């Protein structure tokens, strides 16, 4: 069983459709077992849901309203605490089910490693897949302190799965020297420090392709998103991240799923991070699905 069938807690705003009625399925992946600095992102999905109650249902940016969507919030997965491998298998299994049923995936993390099994499932469905990745960190390590299942490894894993030339990273400002050497030598696209302008430059080359979008909230400067496990100074603003989301929404790429990860509420005393994350998710749901 992936979820607590009796769950009656908070849902994301207007995510009130049944699974059968839905076009979009949102679900939480409350895992933070492999983090290298500050834990707590397993509580991120529920805090984002709680913060969403303060949102308007209408996006003035996109002139769209959440009532136009059919969204089902499945709640948080029941993952076996401390067992990263089993948790990843369960996430992939649920993503497989969503794709088989024709649903648009919206994942809430949790640490960034949870994106890996979802991307693996999407690649099985869409072998011409490209990844758009926004993050402070390269996440290109093969392992961390001997652990191959680490929140610092998901982008390296997906590069090796789908081909590094199909991975596009933006906003990167932290990582080992070897990670940046790998990015340069492997043929992946990496834009350091900024997001919106370099993203706009590459979107035409991805026109018509299936794309999965993964956003680590720490791509934002800690002034905008202090509530995250591995905050990194020198990041982008909330305005720039919205600009990037809207650039994807207005492009000719076919977004087939997305996630937002690494919100850690215990460090988010003014709730800046959860409030921002809920708004980004509203814009992603209104802007990314093509039908």
From TrEMBL:
<dbReference type="InterPro" id="IPR020855">
    <property type="entry name" value="Ureohydrolase_Mn_BS"/>
</dbReference>
<dbReference type="GO" id="GO:0033389">
    <property type="term" value="P:putrescine biosynthetic process from arginine, via agmatine"/>
</dbReference>
<feature type="binding site">
    <location>
        <position position="216"/>
    </location>
    <ligand>
        <name>Mn(2+)</name>
    </ligand>
</feature>
<feature type="binding site">
    <location>
        <position position="218"/>
    </location>
    <ligand>
        <name>Mn(2+)</name>
    </ligand>
</feature>
<comment type="similarity">
    <text>Belongs to the arginase family. Agmatinase subfamily.</text>
</comment>
<dbReference type="GO" id="GO:0008783">
    <property type="term" value="F:agmatinase activity"/>
</dbReference>
<feature type="binding site">
    <location>
        <position position="137"/>
    </location>
    <ligand>
        <name>Mn(2+)</name>
    </ligand>
</feature>
<dbReference type="InterPro" id="IPR023696">
    <property type="entry name" value="Ureohydrolase_dom_sf"/>
</dbReference>
<comment type="pathway">
    <text>Amine and polyamine biosynthesis; putrescine biosynthesis via agmatine pathway; putrescine from agmatine: step 1/1.</text>
</comment>
<dbReference type="Pfam" id="PF00491">
    <property type="entry name" value="Arginase"/>
</dbReference>
<keyword id="KW-0464">Manganese</keyword>
<keyword id="KW-0661">Putrescine biosynthesis</keyword>
<protein>
    <recommendedName>
        <fullName>Agmatinase</fullName>
        <ecNumber>3.5.3.11</ecNumber>
    </recommendedName>
</protein>
<keyword id="KW-0620">Polyamine biosynthesis</keyword>
<dbReference type="InterPro" id="IPR006035">
    <property type="entry name" value="Ureohydrolase"/>
</dbReference>
<dbReference type="InterPro" id="IPR005925">
    <property type="entry name" value="Agmatinase-rel"/>
</dbReference>
<feature type="binding site">
    <location>
        <position position="139"/>
    </location>
    <ligand>
        <name>Mn(2+)</name>
    </ligand>
</feature>
<comment type="function">
    <text>Catalyzes the formation of putrescine from agmatine.</text>
</comment>
<feature type="binding site">
    <location>
        <position position="135"/>
    </location>
    <ligand>
        <name>Mn(2+)</name>
    </ligand>
</feature>
<feature type="binding site">
    <location>
        <position position="112"/>
    </location>
    <ligand>
        <name>Mn(2+)</name>
    </ligand>
</feature>
<dbReference type="GO" id="GO:0008295">
    <property type="term" value="P:spermidine biosynthetic process"/>
</dbReference>
<dbReference type="GO" id="GO:0046872">
    <property type="term" value="F:metal ion binding"/>
</dbReference>
<keyword id="KW-0378">Hydrolase</keyword>
<keyword id="KW-0745">Spermidine biosynthesis</keyword>
<keyword id="KW-0479">Metal-binding</keyword>
């Amino acid at each position: 069983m992936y979820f607590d069938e009796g769950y009656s807690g908070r849902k994301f705003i207007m995510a009130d459709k049944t699974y059968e009625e839905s076009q979009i399925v949102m679900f939480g992946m409350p895992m933070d077992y492999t983090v290298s600095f500050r834990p707590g992102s397993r509580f991120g999905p529920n805090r984002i849901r709680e913060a969403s109650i303060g949102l308007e249902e209408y996006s003035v940016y996109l002139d769209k309203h959440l009532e136009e969507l059919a969204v089902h919030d499945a709640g948080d997965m029941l993952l076996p605490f401390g067992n990263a491998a089993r948790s990843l298998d369960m996430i992939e299994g649920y993503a497989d089910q969503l794709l088989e049923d024709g649903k648009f995936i919206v994942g809430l993390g949790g640490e960034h490693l949870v994106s890996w099994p979802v991307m693996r499932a999407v690649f099985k469905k869409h072998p011409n897949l490209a990844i758009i990745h926004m993050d402070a960190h390269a996440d290109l390590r093969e392992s961390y302190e001997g652990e191959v299942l680490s929140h610092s490894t998901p982008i390296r894993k997906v590069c090796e799965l789908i081909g590094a030339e199909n991975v596009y990273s933006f906003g990167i400002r932290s990582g080992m020297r070897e990670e940046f050497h790998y990015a340069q030598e492997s043929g992946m696209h990496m834009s350091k420090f900024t997001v919106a302008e370099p993203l706009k430059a590459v979107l035409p080359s991805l026109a018509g392709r299936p794309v999965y979008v993964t956003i680590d909230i720490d791509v934002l400067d800690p002034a905008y998103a202090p509530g995250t496990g591995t905050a990194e100074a020198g990041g982008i603003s909330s305005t720039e991240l919205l600009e990037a989301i809207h650039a994807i929404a207005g492009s000719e790429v076919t977004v087939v799923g997305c996630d937002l990860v690494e919100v850690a509420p215990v460090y988010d005393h003014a709730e800046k991070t959860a409030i921002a994350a809920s708004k980004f998710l509203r814009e992603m749901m209104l802007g990314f699905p093509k039908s």
